[in-house]
Specification:
The structure is a single chain. The chain has 444 residues and is α/β, with parallel strands linked by helices. It is 30% helix and 25% strand. The strands form seven sheets. The chain has a five-stranded mixed sheet with strand order 16-17-15-2-26. Helix 3 links the parallel strand 6 and strand 7. It is globular and about 65 Å long. The structure holds shikimate-3-phosphate and phosphoenolpyruvate.
Length: 444
């Protein structure tokens, strides 16, 4: 493959005949941004090792600094956060949140509960991503949050309210990040009485709630859980620094390399996540196994290799919505029609991912059916068409479509162009270097 860094507008990928190698993963976005906020809310100083360096963590770090919460980077891998013990030194701030859901949603709850005069805004797409369920839940318990643009969406203005929370409810079917945000702020509300959060309706993306609860526990707060329906925080619990937190490698980022191993030979080993990961997206490897790949797991690594032609699958991907995009592209190399179900949340992420995925897969010659909450992909007979893939300012569109340059067991990829590859900066700024590191041209 060639990587044309001098062309910021596109990258051309030649057919990749074989993939093999080891990839050290960047830090998990979900763990990084949660850890930063919890460390900032905690008492004491937290050392964070392996924080993700990307647009999404930069906006969180920038917001913490604007709020007067001190942190410093001491070397390439280590950050130190000086916790504010639940207080915010700066009472008025204008915060740019980029397109980071893991920054704007938890911060909205924390700022509304602690109180002050804050505005939160982001890129254009952030202003199209819903936040109404979270704002409703907070305003119902006395927060003062207003929309300064379109109702239900950022930008937001937060003023000091009078929080009286004992029981609050939030809808769970648009984004699990709303529940995550309320959970992380619940200890700040539960000063004298317990606080219970009820989930109204279905809760999507459940494994992300497990990440939230796991990290809260490490910062000294336990949450009583009644299934996925209600969550209670007993009073008097305060966040306290655990000392040091090691951030796992990003399991969603792992999906591209594991799929590459499953399609293009392998073995590919990703390092930084393993069988004990707290990230739900490690279950992506199970989907590859169902498609016929061979997966091996260690404490801190996962390895994938191909084992003949992949088989199509028909499965529910609600638990791994991000990594599921990688399956939609891997489906180009599977025999039969692959169907991904229960992924309506794709419509409200970095772009409308159901529409974007369908449009771009069709450019490669696939037959695609797109429904309100599902997509099915039938690969073309013979080679994939040469195509220019648009990425819609969505890092995952750029990363998962790089796989369409692979030579699978059944067919050869064609030279393809990926427009605006730099959008990977949201979670994986060096993605195309890492991909170049495992991609080998004709080895035969
Ligand atoms: O809490 C998190 O860290 C995330 C939750 C998921 O969002 P939804 O709950 O909106 O599906 C996921 O897509 C996102 O990338 C990260
Ligand atoms: C949906 C995603 O991001 P966010 O954390 O902004 O919701 C994603 O990374 O795929």
């Amino acid at each position: 493959m060639t990587q044309q860094k001098q062309y910021p507008h596109h990258i051309d990928l030649k057919p990749v005949m074989h993939v093999e190698g080891v990839v050290r993963l960047p830090g998990s976005k979900s763990i990084s941004n949660r850890t930063l906020l919890l460390a900032a809310l905690a008492e004491g100083t937290t050392t964070i090792v392996g924080l993700l360096a990307s647009d999404d963590t930069l906006v969180m770090l920038g917001a913490l600094r604007s709020l007067g919460l001190a942190w410093e980077q001491v070397d390439e891998h280590t950050h130190i956060v000086h916790g504010g013990g639940g207080a915010l030194p700066v009472h008025e701030a204008d915060l740019f949140m980029g397109n980071a859901g893991t920054a704007i949603r938890p911060l909205t709850a924390a700022l509304a509960v602690i109180g002050g005069d804050y505005t939160l805004h982001g890129v254009t797409r952030m202003h199209e991503r819903p936040i109404g369920d979270l704002v409703d839940a907070l305003n119902e318990i006395g927060a003062q949050i207003e929309y300064t643009g379109v109702e239900g969406f950022p930008p937001l203005r937060i003023r000091r309210g009078h929080i009286h929370a004992q029981r609050l409810s939030v809808r769970g079917n648009v984004s699990s990040q709303f529940l995550t945000a309320l959970l992380m702020s619940a200890p700040l509300m539960a000063r004298e009485q317990p606080v219970t959060i009820d989930v109204v309706g279905e809760l999507i993306s459940k494994p992300y709630i497990e990440i939230t609860l796991n990290l809260m526990r490490r910062f000294g707060v336990t949450v009583e859980q009644d299934g996925w329906q209600s969550f209670t925080v007993q009073p008097g619990q305060r966040y306290a620094s655990p000392g040091t937190i090691h951030v796992e490698g990003d399991a969603s980022s792992a999906s591209y390399f594991l799929a590459a191993g499953a399609i293009g030979g392998g073995p590919i080993r990703v390092e930084g996540v393993g069988r004990d990961s707290i990230q739900g997206d490690v279950r992506f490897a199970e989907a590859l196994e169902q498609m016929g790949a061979t997966i091996t797991r260690g404490d801190n690594w996962i390895e994938a290799r191909s084992n003949g032609v992949l088989k199509a699958i028909d499965a529910d991907f609600n638990h791994i919505p991000d990594a599921a995009m990688t399956i939609a592209v891997a489906a180009l190399y599977a025999e039969g029609t692959t169907t991904l179900r229960n992924i309506a949340s794709w419509r409200v992420k970095e772009t409308d991912r159901l529409a974007a995925m369908a449009t771009e897969l069709r450019k490669l010659g696939a037959i695609v059916e797109e429904g309100p909450d599902y997509i099915s992909v039938t690969p073309p007979v013979g080679e994939l068409s040469a195509a220019t893939i648009d990425t819609y300012d969505d890092h995952r569109m750029a990363m998962c479509f790089s796989l369409a340059s692979l030579d699978g067991k059944a067919r050869r990829g064609n030279t393809m162009r990926i427009n605006d590859p730099k959008c990977v900066a949201k979670t994986f700024p060096d993605y195309f270097d890492a991909f170049a590191g495992i991609a080998h041209e004709n080895l035969i």
